[in-house]
Amino acid sequence: MVKFCAGLDLDCGPFLAIHTESAIQAGKLSEADVNGALAHTLSVQMRLGMFDGEPSRQPFGNLGPNDVCTPAHQQLALEAARQGAVLLQNRARSLPLSTTRHRTIAVIGPNSDVTITMIGNYAGVACGYTSPLQGIARYAKTVHQSGCNGVACPDNQLFGRAETAARNADATVLVMGLDQSIEAEFKDRVGLLLPGHQQELVSRVAMASRGPVVLVLMSGGPLDVSFAKNDPRVSAILWVGYPGQAGGTAIADVLFGRTNPGGKLPMTWYPQDYLAKAPMTDMALRANPSRGYPGRTYRFYKGTVVFPFGLGLSYTNFAHEIAHAPTAVSVPLATLDGLKNSTTFSNGVRVKHTNCDALSLGVDVDVKNTGDMDGTHSLLVFSTPPLGKGDLEKQLIGFEKVHVVAGGRQRVRVHIDVCKHLSVVDKFGIRRIQMGEHSLHFGDIKHSISLQATLGDIKT
Predict the structure, then answer these.
(1) 363/174 Cα distance (integer angstroms)
(2) Number of alpha carbons in the 13 Å side-chain half-sphere of residue 402
(3) pLDDT per position as a tens digit, 158-203
């Protein structure tokens, strides 16, 4: 009953209904745990009004499409899709496309004219859809070829038509990737490459195209598209996840520069050979070079990546400058016993032995837009422990989103909790703060903060 032990006492499937009684009989689970889980579930149901009588007589009992599909709600869906788009590559500033120079667009790929695919799973009924093909058609004349029969792309029989379309267009947009037939709950992917013959389609179309080639990827997880990243004929790569009902409009708005992309990649994109090195039977996070295990997540993985966690390009350029930040912080220990029982300089100070109340730091960072286009920037703040202390590569400790006009600057205040953000859980599950010089990463700049354990008041 791992779900209970991990603090989650709700299961959305039949597992608990089938196995709970036997777990109690075997002594693996107590009735008190079950009663507690039931109380939590019932209390939420009460808050939702599920025991208040006939639903249609309740305040929200008659909500329908007219309430959900308001202009404001549909605009919100569009804005979410725009903000979620992540520009991964943009060779020679090939994006945004121009409505005057790129009058005819070849729109190609198994996801180029999809609708339901864009909402992924766990979604309600959409108010309406705008496919990528429809979105692009609002900006330019389009020539459409699917190239594949679905994302499985079992053969290359339609590739010739796609190549012809690309050869006769001013620019080509390939909308590739996955859908729920490839990745879904209870349907694990067996590889990181594009399915079937998709890679061949991208390469052949890129070879035939007379104009810039943009690869748009729909997926919920990472993809190894190293072939496209390294192909000089693929001008740009845009990842949009599953962008929702307005996904086609959002994609087109980004491609033609109405929206300046500002999304950041929420996961590491590993190469295909990572799967052989990190079997699903080994969930350890830390790398183990002695047995060839590379580690998991950007925090511990030490190998090469296709695209790193947190990557996201813009049509403008941003620079960072630290306006104010402490350089030294005293970490007060709560008791003398804390100093005696902590191997302070080798393993770090246990957080529970530390007086964390006043260990909150403020760092002011100026974000400057040095380009010629207004843009929204997500400032990601990472920390790295002292050199040689622990296995951690870096960890995200905060982020702030700020809109900066071309040529302007905005000051961002970043709050850092030393006990939370500059500590690491060791191999034994103990959270410790390493003493020494920690590095803070703000975009393209670094700042060092030295931590020292004391029994006195905090000094910065």
Answers:
(1) 42
(2) 22
(3) 999 999 999 999 999 999 999 999 999 888 898 999 999 999 999 9
